[in-house]
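Tutorial handout. Part one gives the primary structure; part two gives the three-dimensional structure as tokens.
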Amino acid sequence: MVFRAFHVFVDTSVLVKIIYAITLYHKVSVSKRPPRILGMLENGILTIYTDNAVINELKDTALPNLLSNVNRTEHGWPNIKPDIMILYCIDELNYLVSRNYIRIAEEDRSLEKQRRALGNRPTRRVCWRDGLIDDILSRVPPEMVPFEDISIISSLLYAYDLLATVPRRALSGITKGKLVFITDDNKLKQFVETYLTCNNCPCREKIITLSYKDFKDKLLKSFLGAQ
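Part two.
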């Protein structure tokens, strides 16, 4: 049985939900069915890329915010303190990173060949180019994109060039010309769709934005269709 491999880039709003769901399964609800996305990660069907800004925001802000608002009783951990649950989630994140299920685009060793190509041959760059971010931000109202999201946007462009446009020998890029960006941050999603995929941008029709729910629905349909 052969499955298509998916390579996606996620922001904090999505990664925190993935980490929380997997942590609940491993640490709290071990008798329940594992999250489908965990099986896809473990079987190489899905690889998640992100950047250090997302990882730091997840640890410092997103996890505490999520765990302070969820229904702990409904989720099966009424007697576990939130600070302990945060540690569980961070341990789960570190494990997923150690297994290469979640990869930091700027640090992923498997992309070293592509990284050297981008560094040595600027002509291979489509989105991750000198001045592109500055040019985009100069046209964007300041309230459209928070300062802390700028590094995520830059990393998204870098991940696109690493995964989609840099060939291995005579082959096409890993994602064959497109990169799916998963986010539930409506402001960030609007920014990407308005300023990174517009007619004047080299990323037009190359970076595809989806909500986490829409992505899971598409992933499930592709998974079931491959069986």
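Part three, for discussion. The CA atoms of residues 90 and 148 lie 21 Å apart. The mean pLDDT is 83.
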